[in-house]
Amino acid sequence: MLKLIKRLKSKKSGFTLIELIVVIAILGILAAVLVPSILGYVDEANEKTAKANAHSFFQTAQLAYVEVVQEKDASTLVTSGLVDQASDNDVVEKIVTLVPASAVFKVEIGASGITKIEYDGYEYDGANYTAATTAA
Q1: Domain ranges (residues) in the chain
Q2: Taking the CA of residue 111 as centre, how many other CA atoms within 13 Å lie in the half-sphere pointing to its CB?
Q3: pTM of the model as a whole
């Protein structure tokens, strides 16, 4: 009995080199399969965030336009839409007070308000998103 106990104690337990290589190979295969799919989710989330930011900025720009028009002349709000009584500079100055200081944007202003914005890598016209073509 004593010999059996000595033999069990002397036997080293652990992994062989082959077992370690197999485990590392399996982990490598799992990483090669999972990393691209995880990165795809991250890219998709970033795109949705950028589109939401562009939409939010469009609404902010419209709000600034309406506020400037109302400050200029309250009678410019008519049933057919807004009549452009505000200068583009007044609207841009108002937008700057409503967005973060680090924001880089481009705004197109038409006779009836904001027609298109470029913000956070996307152009938004109130209905459609497109990738921005130029930097502001």
Answers
A1: 22-131
A2: 4
A3: 0.61
